[in-house]
Amino acid sequence: MPRHTRLFLLLVITSLLGCQTDSADQPVPEVPASPVSTPETISQTEAERAEQAEPKTAAVRQFRFIYAGTLSELEPGAEVSVWLPVATDTHEQQVLDREIEVPGEYVIGKEAGYGNTILHFTATANEQGEVPFQVVYHLTREEALLDSGADVSEEEASKFKIGTTFVPTDQQLSEQILKDTVLSEDPETAGRQIYDAVNLHMKYDKPEGEDWGRGDSVWACGNGFGNCTDFHSLFISVCREQKLPAKFEIGFALPTERGSGTVGGYHCWAKFAVDGKWVPVDISEADKDPTLTDYYYGNLTENRVTFTTGRDLTLNPAQQAGLVNFLIYPYAEVDGKIHTTFRKDFRFEDVQ
After folding, report:
1. By the 8 A CB rule, do 340 and 328 touch?
2. Which range of residues forms the domain containing residue 112?
3. For residue 78, what are the contacts with CB-CB under 8 A and spacing of at least 6?
């Protein structure tokens, strides 16, 4: 090969090697890989979308509820007339079985105002001046969800617009609770505005010696605290003033933990009508736990049992001492006078 040709090739090779060395010294930018849509990823995405689109499935709890106690501080041998509320099937619960243990004969009937089922018996106080009672329920309870409320009949809608002794509709409570709020023409939005206004106005508190617990709307509005009956009575009064049908339900709340244990006392909530459906609210529970404020507008947990609805009750058979404010604890009369002293023994047992 001629000398000038060899020289030319050497220069070309050197040049090429130099270019490769310069490129290796520079950082190579990383180009993000484009996502590849495999059949698996497409399927997962569609499944996630479908899951989000599906309505929430209501939680269900099956348990026994023992409604038991003892009327006490009676004169031995005194004749006592006793009425007990009876839990029955509702939109959210089904009673599977019921066992009744009371002294003497009993009858079960319904009161005319709201159709509540009531057990009545007459008993003689024992030597200790006591009358025991026990009703054991086996039932299932379903979570109440905003979009699956029970139907509201025209009769109910009319009935639950009318005021009662402690839940009046002629006291302009709306002005004090809603203040400058312009209530929406949409019933569901209006219900939320009332719910929030009552929650802002009220505080869950039960100081000794105060008149909380009667479910007195006027008292609750003026004092700004109370228990569940006070919260929901005020809510119902404002709803009814705004021509929204609203009703009172009372029963018991169960601990969220499954198992067994005691239940200290009653719990109540309210429902109002939207487009022919009942929408539940539990404002006192929302006040206790603000993280659940949105949930308790339109939803109720499955951890409860309903016994009765409504206020100003005339029992069956009729009592002698006047209208009953609400019925959840045993109502008793001796010689036509109310006897209120009793020991509670309310319990629950979850069924696996």
Report:
1. no
2. 59-143+315-352
3. 124, 125, 129, 334
Report the distance separating Cα 308 and Cα 118, nearest Å: 9
**Chain position carrying tokens 């509820």:** 65
Confidence of residue 352 (pLDDT cuts 50, 70, 90): confident
Dump pLDDT digits (tens) for 4-16.
444 343 333 333 3
Give phi and psi for 271, each to the nearest 5.
Answer: -140, 145
Instruction: Return the C-alpha torsion angle 204, 207, 213, 214, nearest 10.
Output: -130
Phi (first) and psi of residue 257, to 5 degrees? -70, 130
Distance CA 293, CA 301 (A): 13
Confidence of residue 52 (pLDDT cuts 50, 70, 90): low
Are residues 295 and 168 both part of a single domain? yes
CATH of the domain at 149: 3.10.620.30
Those residues whose C-beta lies under 8 Å from the C-beta of residue 26, and which sit 6 or more positions away, are none
CA 208 – CA 96 distance, rounded (Å): 39
What is the total count of domains within the chain? 2
Note whether 223 and 337 are same-domain residues. Answer: no
Contacts by residues 169-173 (CB-CB < 8 Å, ≥ 24 positions apart): 169/237, 169/240, 169/241, 171/217, 171/218, 171/221, 171/237, 172/241, 173/217, 173/218, 173/221, 173/234, 173/237, 173/238, 173/241
Q: What is the tens place of the pLDDT at every residue in 287-303?
A: 999 999 999 999 999 99
SS3 289: coil
Q: Do 253 and 118 belong together in one domain?
A: no
